[in-house]
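BUG: 3D viewer hangs when loading the predicted structure for this chain

Environment: internal workstation, default settings.
Expected: structure renders.
Actual: progress bar stalls at 90%.

Input used:
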Amino acid sequence: MFKKIDEVIHFFTKLDKPLLILDGLRVVAINSLAAELFSLDKQILIGQTVLDLSPQFQEGDVSSESLLIQYIDEVNRNEKHNYKWIHNDAHGNAILCTVNLICFQIGNEQFMLEIMEDIKVFPVSNVPHKKICFNSNNLKIRTMLKLKNHEDLSLFKSSETPLCVCTFDGYFKELNDAWTEQLGWSIEALRSKPFLDFVHPEDHNKTLKYFNVLLKGYDLYLFTNRYINHESQYINLRWSAFSDKVSREIFAIAEIIK
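Structure tokens produced before the viewer hung:
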């Protein structure tokens, strides 16, 4: 049995995952990974409720409050429960994750530990007001890119949609021929300098912000920015990507928005 809340955070630190400790619905402790994910200082997060960090509705237009009460009842009966959940960060971005909610005691007091896994970030520009919609094609995107990771080069090369592998240093490592067909640049030109050099200057800051999301190992879906083509015109791209922290690579698909 734990004697202090800090002992719980320290014990689960080895998981390298965002953690929240809850007293009922209220946050009483948080680790640094969770603070970074929510883009808020720890001291600001402490005292907030889970509902303060969530949209009004979850998928299927179900009230977050009623759903959370149901999940907490489940934890009180079985000591733990896993479920899909949508949080919001300080910027309003949607954080889709799997929550492992575990009940534990400190002395005679009961608390809950929320462990966040399988994290996917959806930029706020793609989140409808109060309701979250997710593109069913995201599963196809991830499957396609994972095939590339397992050296299925035929699917990677034959795709009519731009696919790429980037390094954590900010360079394109591999690209398929769709990039040349859509933007006019040769593969060699795209690989010759940081990918940020092709991004519209007004989109640099938000591109770097979401690049950092990927560097932390989280998935990113439906992020948009503008890339310059060979004719010096800017093309709107919609990105979905995930990273591999072991190989330090990012696998991404860039859909052309017309």
